[in-house]
Amino acid sequence: MISNKNTRRNFLKTWGTLAASAVLVPELLKADSKKGKKIGLQLYSVRKDMLADAAGTLKQLAKIGYNEIESAKSQKGNYYGLTPKEIKSITGDLGISLVSGHVQIDNDWQKSVDQAAEAGQSYLICSVLPTNGQTVANYQRSAEVFQKAAEDCKKAGITFGYHNHEYEFEKEGEQTLYDVLLDHTDPNLVKMELDLGWVIATGADPQYYFNKYPGRFPLWHLKDMDLKLKQSTEFGKGGVNIKELLGSAKKSGLKHFFVEQEEYSGTPLSSVEYDYNYVSKLL
Predict the structure, then answer these.
(1) Does 12 reside within a domain?
(2) Which residue in 3, 105, 174, 259 is a FRET match for 156, CA 20 to 30 A apart?
(3) What is the pLDDT of residues 32-85, one digit of tens each?
(4) d(C-alpha 283, C-alpha 264), whole Å
(5) Is 167 helix (H, G, I), strand (E, B) or coil?
(6) CB neighbours (10 Å) of residue 274?
(7) pLDDT tens, 240-260?
(8) Is 236 part of any domain?
(9) Where residue 254 sits, what CATH number does that domain have?
(10) What letter does residue 236 receive in the DSSP assignment?
């Protein structure tokens, strides 16, 4: 979804070349003897490939080096036509962890919770506000829905979270709507998956949120953005300082990040391979 916002912050400038030194990131993101560096991908990045050949695409992602993934609901269900058991088996054989998945809080909500548990996910992420209206009152209602959804997930041994886009950073009066969600939900129950590309594209500062709500963001969408066009691009080609953000991983509470790219200069698979190689050099 393309933002209608025209503002941006000047604190982040286009950064097109890799620095020679690695980022100081938490141990949890570094290599281990079995899996290597923890680098995840949101499967929406390769959505058409997944719909055409889910198992084959997962094999290609494993070959690139991705070892964690996050699914996204599609017209073929939560796992691109695979059952929870099938995707758990395929990813397990490939050495990939299915960490999380994007769904909506709708009439199939409990089914999504049950499927996530069956697939072995640690997180279940709502990707769309469950109630309509860009008002503080509406965001308070959404926060109430999130509290209940988080309780449902907790019973299944899963952590609930919400993924932002750009519209959450609009304001009613002096109140930023995204902050309403954070202030009216239990931080022990409701986590946030911060889409860093959209945050920066709206002119908001991720560091503000890391400082005000430390530990609240165990998941990230790591995304570079063309800030003029308000669309994603390959790492290092936009206005998001990937290296600087990774340096704030500990403060944010980061446990897993997922590369995401929605628009491409080539094919989706070639773009996510480029992104993998880019971020791998930083870890």
Answers:
(1) no
(2) 259
(3) 545 678 999 999 999 999 999 999 999 999 999 999 999 999 999 999 999 999
(4) 24
(5) helix
(6) 19
(7) 999 999 999 999 999 999 999
(8) yes
(9) 3.20.20.150
(10) T
Rg (CA), the chain: 18
Burial class (CB in 10 A: 0-12, 13-18, 19+), 159: buried
CA distance 139 to 133: 8
Please check whether residue 127 is in contact with residue 72, taking contact to mean a CB–CB distance below 8 angstroms: yes
Q: State the residue for tokens 């995204």.
A: 178
Residue 52 makes CB contacts below 8 A (sequence gap 6+) with: none
237 Cβ contact partners less than 8 Å away, ≥ 6 residues apart? 16, 224, 226, 265
SS3 34: coil
Tokens in use for 15? 């950064």
CA 140, 215, 8, 130 torsion-angle sign: negative
Token pair for residue 59?
């094999």
Q: Are strands 175-176 and 171-172 parallel, antiparallel or unpaired?
A: antiparallel
50, part of any domain: no
